[in-house]
Amino acid sequence: MRHLWSFLAGLVVAPLTWVLVTLGQDGSGRTVHRWVELGTYSTPNLIEPAVYLGVAGILLGLLATLRFSPLGPLVAGLLLAVPYVGMFVAPFSVRDRVPENWKVLGDPLPLRLPLENGTLFLIGVLLLMAVFSVQRWRRWPAPATGAELTPVDQPDETPRSFGDWPPADARQDPDPAPLSLGYPDTPTEPLPRRTGGESPWSAPPRATGRPEGTAETR
User: Fold this and answer.
1) What is the pLDDT of residues 24-79, one digit of tens each?
2) Which residues contact 136 (CB under 8 A, 6 or more apart)?
């Protein structure tokens, strides 16, 4: 079913892209040529052709990049590239088969313009590259019906009686170590005591030997 919808989308996008690209290129070209003739420009004049080209780019991007089915890009690419390839065989016949005097909202629609400048061939080749995406031909994997859940460890809800609790002595913490500042335990030795019970202030200094050549005076 997805290939059918993609096929229908390719049939719609190909001619719509041709028309939008024609309007955008013709409008941009005529606007720029008029600017050159007048020697001045007005930027809002490019808004309309830019919108046409932007919409064409969005349609082509959705058709070529979405992982839906490559059948749509294949059909649209062939429809856009084959006319330019026919120019190699019978250029005048192909050119005459393209309508020329159509108008859209009062604007001329020269459908031969993107054919002659090769824009259609460029877009067609880009769309044909989607055919080489193998993953787009495969069916999307079906979602899993049920995901396997990892069991979560349940808390132990075994009822306990009063006799199952540990005794009070086992639950008491041992005496904590006394607080300290972290310094190593260095024993302090007492200062040595003075022997004899004397001090420099309790007894006068003792006389020492007299020097030679001095007489004792009383």
Assistant:
1) 999 899 999 999 988 888 888 899 999 999 999 999 888 888 777 778 888 889 99
2) 67, 68, 69, 70, 130
Q: What token pair was written down for 79? A: 């429809």
| Cα–Cα distance measured from residue 116 to residue 84, given in angstroms and rounded to the nearest whole number | 8
Q: What pLDDT is recorded for position 4?
A: 82
For the chain, how many residues are written?
218
Q: Find the angle CA(168)-CA(173)-CA(175) to the nearest 5 degrees.
A: 125
Q: What is the 3-state secondary structure (H, E, C) of the chain?
A: CHHHHHHHHHHHHHHHHHHHHHHHHHHHHHHHHHHHHHCCCCHHHHHHHHHHHHHHHHHHHHHHHCCCCCHHHHHHHHHHHHHHHHHHHCHHHHHHHCCCCEEECCEEECCHHHHHCCHHHHHHHHHHHHHHCHHHCCCCCCCCCCCCCCCCCCCCCCCCCHHHCCCHHHHCCCCCCCCCCCCCCCCCCCCCCCCCCCCCCCCCCCCCCCCCCCCCCC
Cβ atoms < 10 Å from Cβ of 59: 18
Helices 71-89, 2-38: inter-axial angle, 10-degree rounding? 50
Q: How far apart are CA 19 and CA 12, in angstroms?
A: 11
How far is residue 22's CA from residue 107's CA, in Å, rounded to a whole number?
Answer: 11
pLDDT tens for each residue of 208-218: 555 555 555 55
Cα gap 40→213, rounded to integer Å: 134
